[in-house]
Design brief:
The N terminus is likely disordered. The chain is built from six helices and twelve strands. With 214 residues, it is an alpha/beta fold. The longest helix is centred in the N-terminal third of the chain and has 18 residues.
């Protein structure tokens, strides 16, 4: 009799938890958004009120939210008894890409995730033939930008990369930096800082141990 009662109680508990709204979704909490709207996250998440928490496919929700252009990734968790939490990590712009009369924000992975009419202050423009995450020249340009200290990065107006091994920087004061390929970018960035205190129009750090000023 006791065993039968336990089986019945377990069955009722499973039914309540997994097939009724007694422990279902009542609230969806979104955290970590700034540029991305919470409404966009909620729409992408598509969580139906009343769905039993135990039956939520949190991985699928995370994937749907992660497809929002400005979202780098999202973590979805249950908070019993009635809440779903969505923690969003937004993409951070590293550069801007000119496209017609507007600009696209670009993150360190080369993803174009938001169009803006005016480029934000302090972000360099990237000029490549085939922009996108898979383009080697784009990746090289972003590695170079990422290697620059913030003070140096703010001095850069444009980064041109006709090929991955021919990156050049155009500074806001009109000077040019010949960078070459993305290899040894940390050493090149260290060499460039002191060089820019000296007069010149072109600074070649493609071989950082023998940098040249012209």
């Amino acid at each position: 009799m006791a065993v039968a009662l336990v089986v019945v109680l377990v069955g009722v508990a499973v039914w309540v938890v997994g097939f009724t709204s007694a422990l279902g979704v009542r609230t969806v909490v979104v955290r970590g958004t700034d540029a991305v709207s919470q409404d966009a996250v909620l729409a992408a998440a598509a969580v139906t009120t009343g769905t039993p928490l135990i039956r939520l496919d949190t991985a699928a929700i995370s994937r749907r939210v992660g497809r929002i252009p400005g979202v780098q990734h999202a973590r979805v968790s249950r908070s019993w008894p009635h809440t779903v939490r969505i923690d969003v990590v937004e993409r951070s712009p590293l550069a801007v890409l000119p496209r017609g009369p507007a600009f696209w924000l670009v993150d360190a992975d080369g993803v174009l995730f938001q169009q803006v009419p005016v480029p934000p202050d302090g972000l360099p423009r990237v000029v490549v033939a085939h922009p996108g995450p898979a383009d080697p020249a784009m990746r090289a340009a972003l590695v170079v930008i990422g290697s620059l200290a913030p003070t140096l990065r703010r001095m850069v107006q444009v980064v041109e990369a006709p090929t991955p091994d021919s990156v050049t920087l155009g500074l806001r004061d009109g000077r040019t930096v010949v960078w070459g390929g993305p290899g040894e970018s940390a050493a090149k960035a260290r060499a460039l800082g002191p060089l820019l205190t000296r007069p010149g129009s072109t600074y070649d750090v493609s071989t950082p141990t023998v940098a040249v000023i012209r």
